[in-house]
Write a structure and sequence with these properties.
The chain is α/β, with parallel strands linked by helices. The chain contains 13 helices and 13 strands. Among the domains are: about 120 residues, 3-Layer(aba) Sandwich (Rossmann fold), CATH 3.40.50.2300; about 140 residues, Response regulator (Rossmann fold). Helix 2 crosses helix 11, helix 3 crosses helix 4 and helix 7 runs parallel beside helix 9. About 40% of the residues are buried.
């Protein structure tokens, strides 16, 4: 019996130990599972963190790419704007002008040469940023009007009228348009109705005047011809500048003991007969800047030389071709002055309608000793020594 009880006790003890062992095993398994779970969570967290970091990096790359694209677009836009601005500026710097010259002779040619030089002085250069359309009216007022009409129709930026008839034609053609007119070699802009009495423009027009030094010329003639009484002047009746200048000569002639004998012509064809007649009535001829008469100056000189009487000019070119002397203008300088005025208008710095006309203030003495020798005229050495230029030959006209 005791043996059976001892066996039962031992069996129970063994069972308890077995159960306890099973409990421990379960706990160990649970702990292991829990550890694995924690480890998996940690790994998952690390993976999530890595994914987040990768996503952030990707987003940064995308943002950088977008910023670079925007910068490129901005640069492209700026470049386009710069190119457009440059093209606009270049286009604005291109000028087209028309030059209408009334007649072909030295003084007006010099004026045109000086005009282009004056523009170049201000950075407006033919062949670079300037296109020039040049026409010569050959001393015909009808042709001068056709020339200026054509310039306006072509839409030039500016018209330069050289000599009074061309200036008047250009102004009439440009009326009612935005085309400005700049003139040169207009002896009396007020008489030509291109300027008001105070010198301000009558419209969108301005320029330079070659107003003659009348009193200085009369004084010079008196010194060279102490005994002379009558001065002959040939002029074209259609040239307003000539009529107003003759009026000035008549006004001041008596102050120097002279009488003015004038002879008007209508066309160049009339000059031969008028010159042949006038040289027989006077002691000398005084030539103006009358465009038609200057065009036929050789004819006048020929008849005067036959009568052994001097012809006095009004500017240096007339002296070069055979006039004895002149208290005159340098037309290259006059043209330069005109060109610089035109440059201000083209650049938009000034309006022609707001610029009073300008003049050359001081005339200069020019003498041709060869011309005096041909008519056996003795020149005063003291007077000749004051000349700006002395010529000892006669140039071909």
């Amino acid at each position: 019996m005791k043996k059976k009880m001892l066996a039962a006790i031992m069996a129970a003890t063994m069972m308890a130990m077995t159960v306890a062992g099973c409990g421990d095993n379960r706990k160990t398994a649970d702990d292991a599972q829990e550890a694995q779970s924690t480890e998996a969570v940690a790994e998952s967290s690390e993976t999530a963190d890595e994914a987040t970091e990768e996503t952030s990096e990707a987003e940064e790359v995308v943002e950088e790419a977008e910023e670079a694209e925007e910068a490129t677009e901005e640069t492209s836009e700026e470049t386009t704007e710069t190119e457009e601005t440059t093209e606009t500026e270049e286009a604005a710097d291109e000028y087209v002008i028309g030059i209408s010259q009334f007649a072909e002779h030295g003084s007006l040619d010099n004026c045109r040469e000086g005009f282009l030089q004056g523009l170049a002085n201000e950075g407006i250069v033919e062949g670079e940023n300037l296109t020039v359309h040049f026409q010569n009216a050959q001393a015909d007022t009808g042709t001068a009007s056709q020339i200026s009409d054509a310039f306006v129709a072509d839409g030039v930026d500016l018209i330069c009228g050289i000599a009074t008839p061309s200036a008047m034609s250009a102004y009439n053609s440009a009326l009612g348009t935005t085309v400005p007119v700049i003139y040169s070699a207009v002896s009396d802009p007020v008489a030509a109705e291109l300027a008001k009495e105070d010198g301000t423009p009558v419209g969108n027009i301005t320029g330079t005047s070659d107003a003659l030094a009348v009193t200085e010329q009369l004084e010079m003639i008196r010194k060279m011809l102490p005994d002379a009484k009558k001065i002959g002047i040939l002029y074209t009746t259609s040239e307003t500048n000539s009529e107003s200048t003759i009026a000035q000569y008549k006004e001041h002639a008596s102050e120097y003991g002279f009488e003015i004998v004038d002879s008007g012509i209508n066309t160049l064809a009339d000059l031969d007969m008028a010159a042949a007649d006038l040289v027989t009535k006077v002691d000398c001829i005084n030539n103006l800047t009358d465009n038609t008469v200057v065009s036929g100056l050789k004819t006048v000189l020929s008849y005067a030389n036959e009568q052994k009487i001097p012809v006095f000019g009004s500017e240096v070119e007339q002296v070069k071709v055979g006039c004895v002397a002149a208290m005159g203008l340098d037309y290259v300088k006059l043209g330069i002055q005109t060109g610089e005025m035109a440059a201000k208008v083209l650049k938009g710095e000034s309006e022609a309608s707001e610029m009073p006309f300008e003049v050359i203030s001081e005339p200069s003495l020019y003498v041709n000793t060869k011309a005096a020798e041909q008519i056996e005229m003795t020149l005063d050495d003291e007077l000749v020594s004051t000349a700006a230029e002395i010529f000892d030959s006669i140039a071909a006209n």
